[in-house]
Design brief:
alpha+beta, binds zinc ion
């Protein structure tokens, strides 16, 4: 079985992980209320999607 010959230093490990970062979420603007929302999702502010009311506030 192939195996690493030496333990990777904390410095090397952390330098590799320095490039791990969360992707910036794509944002779109709701045509109904103008709030910033996720694309292809009903608007959490007004509950509209594709010109129709989908969500009702509790
Ligand atoms: Zn909206």
């Amino acid at each position: 079985m192939p195996n690493p010959k030496r333990r990777m230093s904390k410095s090397r490990r952390d330098k590799r992980r320095a490039h791990y970062k969360p992707a910036t979420p794509t944002l779109s603007v709701c045509p109904q209320c103008g709030a910033v929302k996720l694309p292809h999702r009903a608007c959490p502010e007004c509950g509209y999607y594709n010109g129709r009311k989908i969500l009702s506030k509790l």
